[in-house]
């Protein structure tokens, strides 16, 4: 199996306005009309400049124990939560997605201009662009799973559920250099900043489960925003 990379248009993604409003701090409350119009304006601009990219590959050489996931002889200390969910997997899909360098440049431009309000809104929208890109690549993985008559796990990323962000270097070691144009800095953070990496397990005995927010200690995780 080979690395696949796709450059998208923003219209290929299904942005969830409710997620954007959650990112802005509106928890179940409809924002005022001027807030909605500002979001619309930024999304309209993003349609002109934003070129999201998704990349993924399937790996069959895997080994899983209590705290570690090893793919192609590259060990990753995912922690027991993620490793536990991956136990039934016979294939692992590793992926990265990004809103792209153009959107990163847009955020930087707003910061340089001192436009704090627009930057805050654009940052929230950029996060949803990245998350909707994860949903897009998840759909592609699910299509492959359907072909193989397998089930899939949720997606899990370094920095969540006990998987330390420093392990991102191990995950990137599976991929081409600077996959989808994404680079890691010394702290294992990604650039462009609106990027997400992760894994999805495929297997015949996988059962759909919700994210384990009740046993995860990361209170800032975006999966908690609806709780």
Topology of this protein?
Blueprint: E1 4-7, H1 17-23, H2 33-49, E2 53-59, E3 62-64, E4 68-71, E5 74-77, H3 80-86, E6 91-98, H4 101-113, H5 116-148, E7 151-156, H6 168-172, E8 183-184, E9 190-191, E10 195-203
Antiparallel strand pairs: 1-2, 2-6, 3-4, 4-5, 6-10, 7-10, 8-9
Helix pairs in contact: 1-5, 2-5, 4-5
Radius of gyration equals: 18 Å
Q: How far is the first residue's CA from the last residue's CA?
A: 38 Å
Low-confidence stretches: 222-227
What is the correct CATH architecture?
A: 3-Layer(aba) Sandwich
- Helix content bin: 25-40%
Q: Largest beta sheet: what is the strand line-up?
A: 1-2-6-10-7
How large a portion of the residues is in β-strands, by DSSP E?
15-25%
| Name of the CATH class | Alpha Beta
Largest sheet: 5 strands, antiparallel
Task: Write down the secondary-structure element order.
Answer: EHHEEEEHEHHEHEEE
Mean pLDDT: 92
How many E-type strands?
A: 10
What's the shape? globular
Structure annotation, total helices: 6
Derived structural class? alpha+beta
Short description:
This protein has six helices and ten strands, in the order βααββββαβααβαβββ. By secondary structure, the chain is an alpha+beta fold.
Could you describe the 3D structure shown?
The longest helix is centred in the middle third of the chain and has 33 residues, at 116-148. The chain has one domain (4-224): NADH Oxidase, CATH 3.40.109. It is globular. The relative contact order is 0.19. With 227 residues, it is an alpha+beta fold. Helices cover 36% and strands 22% of the residues. Strand 8 (183-184) and strand 9 form a beta hairpin. The protein has a five-stranded antiparallel sheet with strand order 1-2-6-10-7, with helices on both faces. It is built from six helices and ten strands, in the order βααββββαβααβαβββ.
């Amino acid at each position: 199996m080979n690395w696949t990379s796709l450059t998208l248009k923003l219209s290929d993604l299904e942005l969830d306005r409710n997620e954007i409003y959650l990112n802005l701090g509106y928890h179940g409350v409809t924002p005022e009309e001027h807030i909605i119009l500002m979001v619309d304006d930024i999304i309209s601009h993003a349609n002109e400049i934003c070129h999201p990219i998704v990349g993924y590959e399937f790996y069959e050489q895997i080994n899983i124990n209590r705290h570690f996931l090893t793919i192609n002889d590259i060990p990753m200390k995912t922690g027991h939560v993620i490793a536990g969910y991956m136990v039934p997997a016979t294939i692992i899909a590793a992926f990265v997605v990004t809103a792209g360098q153009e959107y990163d440049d847009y955020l930087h431009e707003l910061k340089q201009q001192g436009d704090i309000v627009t930057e805050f809104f654009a940052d929230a929208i950029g996060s949803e662009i990245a998350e909707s890109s994860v949903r897009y690549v998840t759909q592609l993985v699910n299509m492959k799973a359907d072909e193989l008559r397998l089930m899939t796990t949720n997606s899990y990323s370094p920095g969540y559920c006990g998987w330390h962000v420093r392990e991102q270097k191990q995950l990137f070691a599976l991929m081409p250099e600077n996959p989808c144009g994404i680079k890691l800095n010394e702290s294992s953070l990604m650039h462009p900043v609106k990027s997400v990496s992760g894994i999805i397990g495929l297997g015949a005995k996988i059962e759909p489960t919700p994210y384990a927010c009740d046993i995860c200690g990361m209170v800032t995780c975006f999966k908690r925003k609806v709780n």
